[in-house]
Amino acid sequence: MATTKYFEPDWGTEVTASLPVRFDFAGRAVKSLRIDWDERLFAVHGPAYAVVDGDTVELGATGDIKRSLHVELPDGATELVLRSESLNAYPNENLRDVQRASFRMTTEDASEEEWADTLQSAACNAWSLEATVNWVCHEGVVVPARAVISSIGPYAAPTGVSVGLQYADIVGAPALAPTPGDAETEPVEVSATIESTMHDGVREAVLVTTGQLEAGQQIELVFEVDASDSKPQPFREFVPRLIVTPPQNVSGMRLSEKHSSFPVTPSGSHLSTYEPAPTA
User: Fold this and answer.
1) C-alpha–C-alpha distance, residues 57 and 69, integer Å
2) In this structure, are residues 174 and 266 in contact, taking their beta carbons and an 8 Å threshold?
3) Does residue 33 have a pLDDT over 90?
């Protein structure tokens, strides 16, 4: 099965949904198979494949490939394999009117077998974290200048979130800045601890929250540098990074896919601002 999760519209229930990836016909002479799913949760990429006498056979298919697929099976087919992909609807993953995945299988004797996904649900208070880092080049080395962990909500992020930063030990440990207030409120101090260690030229700073991070709050880590002063040297064995690790066994975590940051573009080159800031 491919699995994914979403939330009900009020963000109070987390639901896990499944879609088959592989069918084993268990000796039945299957003639055709129709599969339906919710296109917000899954995608099925063509072609489909059948296993016949130990060989893999590519199959044609009909139907709306975005949400359904109808496959005619060759004689002797023992398995069907789909290229099913789980999708993440973040940040709009509180969905209504979700269509459960289902299939209808027809055998050569015209008998039918049907199946529908049994959605797994659990009560929760949905929450999300997103991490961003300003990477700059200091003395030829890419280091963080500022890191921000934002609580997106709609409910508070739990206690025990860990934020780990690893970077070259030419910059000291970060300072923890309070969450800025608005025009009518004072800045909010974040409940967290920071530990910093050094090993083989790499500094590791680890922040752990000791209280909930309310929706709209931020953790801001500020470093000794704020702008690039040089162009970067090539990365060697080590690449700096930020990793956010949520606490274990906590329900309601939204899959922001923004729990890490590396100063590397998809093509593998440096990601930072290279040029020194202009001066008057």
Assistant:
1) 17
2) no
3) yes
